[in-house]
């Protein structure tokens, strides 16, 4: 009866490993050096980018008053366009999505004349008319982080000009507050107009009283819209021009390249030693 042969375990010796190092000695010298110099040169000759940052907090929550009157007037509030089931309107989440939207950013870029700054001096006159190019370039530099648990919003902007990056963030915060305030003003005015007309049509005293209570709530909201400049976001940490460029320093990339080259050579040497030891 023939016994089945088991595969033998191949273990290479330190002598084989040292011999592989001697055979690859020029690679050991060259590859880490080339990688280190290449990564450092890429960082050294690339255009430095500065990243400005601003931290925002949601303004005082609005929209909860209508839910407190939902007992006998839920049907009328539904006709008026209110959603009493939600309790509060999440203006922060809506503002974050508006900040990402094409309509808002297209208008922002055109309003502040950012196309030449985004596309650079080499852009042709035809390219400067294509706002979508500016939008794509802007979105590559613009980062939004939204902490839903705390409601904190962090905006970051990168540009070769540190002062421009900070200035754009300040303009973004100002414009989104104006945009959301105008949006809310139009909605409140529409609801006031509807409730006023409805109150004139209804004859029942109790229903009219409920409508007037809703109308008073909308007048209160209208006053909040008018007096609150920071309608949706209040600035915790304003954007300032950064002093240091983003990313790692060229010397750090030099070290990273050397370590990466050394790691690659260790793997290659081990594989070569294993192949040599295999019968």
Automatic annotation (TrEMBL):
GO terms for cellular component: plasma membrane. InterPro entries: Bact_polysacc_biosynth/exp. Keywords: Membrane, Transmembrane, Transmembrane helix. One of its GO terms (molecular function) is protein tyrosine kinase activity. The chain crosses the membrane at residues 26-45, 65-84, 253-275. PANTHER family: FERRIC ENTEROBACTIN TRANSPORT PROTEIN FEPE, TYROSINE-PROTEIN KINASE. This is Polysaccharide chain length determinant N-terminal domain-containing protein. It comes from Pseudidiomarina piscicola. The lineage of its organism: Bacteria, Pseudomonadati, Pseudomonadota, Gammaproteobacteria, Alteromonadales.
């Amino acid at each position: 009866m023939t016994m089945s042969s088991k595969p033998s375990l191949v273990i290479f010796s330190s002598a084989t490993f040292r011999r592989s190092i001697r055979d690859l000695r020029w690679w050991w010298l060259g590859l880490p050096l080339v990688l280190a110099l290449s990564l450092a040169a890429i960082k050294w000759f690339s255009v430095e980018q500065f990243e400005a940052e601003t931290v925002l907090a949601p303004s005082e929550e609005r929209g909860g008053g209508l839910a407190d009157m939902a007992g006998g007037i839920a049907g009328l509030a539904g006709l008026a366009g209110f959603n009493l089931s939600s309790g509060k309107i999440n203006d922060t989440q809506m503002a974050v999505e508006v900040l990402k939207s094409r309509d808002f950013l297209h208008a922002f870029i055109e309003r502040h004349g950012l196309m030449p700054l985004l596309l650079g001096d080499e852009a042709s006159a035809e390219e400067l008319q294509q706002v979508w190019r500016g939008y794509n370039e802007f979105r590559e530099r613009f980062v939004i982080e939204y902490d839903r648990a705390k409601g904190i919003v962090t905006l970051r902007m990168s540009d070769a000009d540190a002062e421009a990056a900070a200035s754009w963030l300040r303009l973004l915060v100002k414009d989104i507050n104006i945009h959301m305030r105008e949006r809310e003003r139009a909605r409140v005015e529409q609801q006031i107009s509807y409730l006023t007309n409805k109150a004139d049509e209804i004859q029942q005293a109790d229903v009219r009283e409920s409508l007037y209570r809703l109308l008073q709530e909308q007048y209160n909201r209208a006053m909040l819209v008018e007096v609150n400049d920071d309608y949706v976001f209040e600035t915790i940490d304003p954007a300032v021009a950064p002093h240091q460029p983003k990313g790692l320093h060229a010397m750090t990339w030099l070290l990273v390249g050397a370590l990466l080259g050394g790691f690659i050579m260790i793997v290659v040497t081990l594989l070569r030693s294993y192949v040599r030891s295999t019968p």
